[in-house]
Each structure stands twice: as structure tokens, then as C-alpha cells.
Design goal:
This protein is mostly helical. It is built from four helices and no strands. The two termini are 27 Å apart.
């Protein structure tokens, strides 16, 4: 993780330089603001990764002598199946469609979004996947 933290911190230095040069040359506020916000986002991610790297064990990518097989094994737990993202997608699509067609459509989209969020958060508290 320390490699990723260093990469993001060096990227933030580059973005800061580009933002300053772009702001001076173009005098365009929207792009300059976007670049400075990208700088801030890169610093936050880099700081988080560098801070977390001190707390966790060294990974294979931190060792210059590591092989590809050193990081092999279980990656993590992923949900086998879920219908909740479908409900969120339909609710989100109706919500954004409500902005274009009419705000009354939000009355149908908000319950779908809430049901999808509730189901996704509590997906492993009930049913066949309860003990995972």
C-alpha cells in the first residue's frame, strides 16, 4: 500500500503544478477550480493510503523481489447474487427521469431507492446468506 500512497502523493504534486500553470495561462475559473479539486482529492487518497500502509502488513507489491504468486489466495468476500442493485438502478433512473419529465415521478422513485438501499445494507442479516 505504500507504493499506491506515494503514487497518489506524487500525482497530487503534478496536478498542483498543472493547476497553477493552467490558472495563470487560461484565467478560466471553472477548469482551474476543477484541477485544484482534483489536487485535493489526490492528496486525500494519497494520505489515506500512506497512513493505512503503516498499520497493515507489507504486501507483495511493496517487496521488489516478490513474484506474482506471492499475492495469490483469497481476495475477499463478494456477494454471490443480489437484486438490490437492480432496484437502485430503476429507482435512480426514475429519479433522474423525474428531473426531465416532472417532479411527480420522484414519488415513485424514492420508495424504490429506499427499498434498494435497505435491502442492500441488510442483505446478509436474513435469508439464505445470513451466516456469511
Amino acid at each position: 500500500m505504500s507504493i499506491q500512497g506515494k503514487l497518489f502523493l506524487w500525482l497530487s504534486v503534478f496536478i498542483l503544478i498543472v493547476a497553477a500553470v493552467y490558472g495563470v495561462w487560461s484565467k478560466e475559473p471553472a477548469g482551474t477550480t476543477a484541477l485544484f479539486l482534483a489536487f485535493g482529492l489526490s492528496v486525500m487518497i494519497g494520505f489515506y493510503l500512506a497512513f493505512t500502509a503503516r498499520r497493515v502488513d507489507a504486501m507483495a507489491q511493496d517487496n521488489k523481489e516478490a513474484d506474482v504468486a506471492d499475492e495469490a489466495g483469497e481476495v475477499g468476500f463478494f456477494a454471490p447474487h443480489s437484486w438490490q442493485p437492480f432496484s437502485l438502478a430503476i429507482g435512480g433512473a426514475l429519479g433522474f427521469l423525474g428531473v426531465a419529465i416532472g417532479w411527480w415521478l420522484l414519488y415513485f422513485s424514492v420508495p424504490l431507492i429506499l427499498v434498494g438501499l435497505w435491502g442492500w445494507v441488510f442483505e446478509f442479516y436474513r435469508g439464505e446468506n445470513q451466516n456469511q
